[in-house]
Model the fold of this input.
Amino acid sequence: MKKALLLASVSAVLTANTAYADLLGANAEFGIFQAENTLTTDSSSVFDLKDESGQYFSADVQHFIPLIPNVRVDAFSLSTTGTSTTAGVSSTAKLDIETKDITGYYGLGLLWVGIEGGLTVRNLEMDYDVGGSTTSVSKSAIPMLYLAATIDIPGTGITLAAESKVISSFDDTTIDDETFKIQYSTPFLVGVEAGYRSLEQKVKNTESKTSGYFIGVTLDI
Done:
């Protein structure tokens, strides 16, 4: 009887640990984003910016604790150069964009479909230089609505995903950040991804639009 109880207890512990292991996870993404860039300011200058590559990084932790949201951090940076023309006179121009996000979200999965929803807080730094004169536009703690959906194709290791981070006219700030991607996971934890991202950010009278394709690697633990 004692042996049976002991075996049952060990089995219960192992089962519980396995269940928790399934509910604990982390993943990371890193890649390069080849983007087309435009900039509009409150001046009469017309910007002609080059297509440049930026970098992105993301880390995500999921857990089984009820009521406490999962946590995700994202970072993105891009620097591009070009010209600015004012009244027929051209000057060198440069644009630097950097975003850092912290997202708390809840997820719901049903068979091969997953849905996530939560709140993102973004720190935005946007600096542009015209003829050696630099203007800095920055905003901290910008709240955005976060929504995402994934579809796993059974037996292939392929996942289709879409996500959106948006805020409209909050403290003179409007952001529309949309991503669509396809991911391939291998049995060795490392995978690859590719997709398209459109990022529009407006702070007062300064608006940048960045869009293009990206490719990267993923790590799923």
Summary: The chain has a mean pLDDT of 88. The first strand starts at residue 25 and ends at 40. Residues 172 and 197 are 23 Å apart (CA to CA).
